Amino acid sequence: MKSLYLPEYCQQISDYLAGGHSVEAWAGVNSVSADAVYDWKEKYPEFDYAMQEGLARRKDWVEKVLKDISTGEKGNASTAIFLAKNWAGMRDDHGVHLTSGASLTDLFNKANKA
User: Which of 54, 59, 60, 114 has the fewest Cβ atoms within 10 Å of its own Cβ atom?
Assistant: First the structure.
């Protein structure tokens, strides 16, 4: 079976992803399966590069949405957090970071006295 891949898809997918869309949505818009798109990524280095570029640009888009919401612009914070965690690779940090030089025990005791 002949591949449906076209070289102009490189710019198209990069621009589409940069607008905040998914690879699967781009596949649907172009009437191809997501599996075909991922096959093209493996077979055509220029398409792989374009997808990676588009995904990086999509992360920038997510960060701009988060910035806008944090400065009072319109938007839905829950949706933005979902996008940040699932599309931009951001995660909650559950680690403890001590910068005061005090031990964790000292901080715990101080908090309990308050």
Answer: 114
